[in-house]
Amino acid sequence: MALLEIEAVSKAFGSLKAVDDVSFSVGAGEIFGIAGPNGSGKSTLFNIVTGIPFGPDRGRVRLDGTEIQARTGDAIARLGLARTFQRETSFDGLTVFENALIGAGFGKPGRPARVIREAAAEALDVVGLPDGAFGRLAGELSVYERKCLMLATAVAMQPRVLLLDEPASSLTKPEIEASIGLIRRIAARGVTIVLIEHVLTFLMTLSQHLLVLNNGRVLAAGAPEAVIADPRVVEAYLGT
Ligand code: ADP
Ligand code: MG
């Protein structure tokens, strides 16, 4: 059975169908890529799945067989679904380590402080933020470091499924290479990953399955090589 199942979800803003009858499923341990031109509904799809800040108008979302589409974002995160955002989000006035601590302590009441500290330090290690950076303020980090910190905070939550919204945007080529390594390392820890990217090459390198959205609908889905060769996908990308 799939770990994450999305069944006919839709979300409209007034007359705009931002996500329109989208279905797909993600197996445990997979890296599942979602592509699509700007405005095609990718981030809205993540919002719907995570309940942050809203669920779908219609359709169902199941995590390991449990329906979650009517739950709050908080409850969904506690069930093991974590996300990052397209814009770097962190508590800028807190240190790197304090940010990771918030992730590690989230939704785990009664967890001993020592275990929370260990989980935070381990997550920072996974994304390559060195001990020397732990005391720096998040607001003083570079764009790449901020993306790493956002990733570490999500990893520290020890999710079963991690949804990443454009982790490679505004990064340099070497930074993109480094983030491919990071995402592989996170996946190797047994975390199932759903990855949104506008950059197709990034998705091709990482994903076992690829889905392309256009105008809120699924344009193509399947093996990455087949999907990018699909004339409708070529047209949607060249048309933007
Ligand atoms: P993508 O992430 O693929 O670039 P989005 O999911 O952000 O696309 O947006 C899909 C469409 O929905 C766009 O036309 C966008 O303007 C619109 N949209 C997204 N969020 C909102 C919102 N909160 N209110 C109104 N329109 C929105
Ligand atoms: Mg987006």
TrEMBL record:
<dbReference type="Pfam" id="PF00005">
    <property type="entry name" value="ABC_tran"/>
</dbReference>
<dbReference type="InterPro" id="IPR003439">
    <property type="entry name" value="ABC_transporter-like_ATP-bd"/>
</dbReference>
<dbReference type="GO" id="GO:0005524">
    <property type="term" value="F:ATP binding"/>
</dbReference>
<keyword id="KW-0813">Transport</keyword>
<dbReference type="InterPro" id="IPR003593">
    <property type="entry name" value="AAA+_ATPase"/>
</dbReference>
<feature type="domain" description="ABC transporter">
    <location>
        <begin position="4"/>
        <end position="240"/>
    </location>
</feature>
<dbReference type="Pfam" id="PF12399">
    <property type="entry name" value="BCA_ABC_TP_C"/>
</dbReference>
<dbReference type="InterPro" id="IPR032823">
    <property type="entry name" value="BCA_ABC_TP_C"/>
</dbReference>
<protein>
    <submittedName>
        <fullName>Branched-chain amino acid transport system ATP-binding protein</fullName>
    </submittedName>
</protein>
<keyword id="KW-0067">ATP-binding</keyword>
<keyword id="KW-0547">Nucleotide-binding</keyword>
<dbReference type="InterPro" id="IPR027417">
    <property type="entry name" value="P-loop_NTPase"/>
</dbReference>
<dbReference type="InterPro" id="IPR051120">
    <property type="entry name" value="ABC_AA/LPS_Transport"/>
</dbReference>
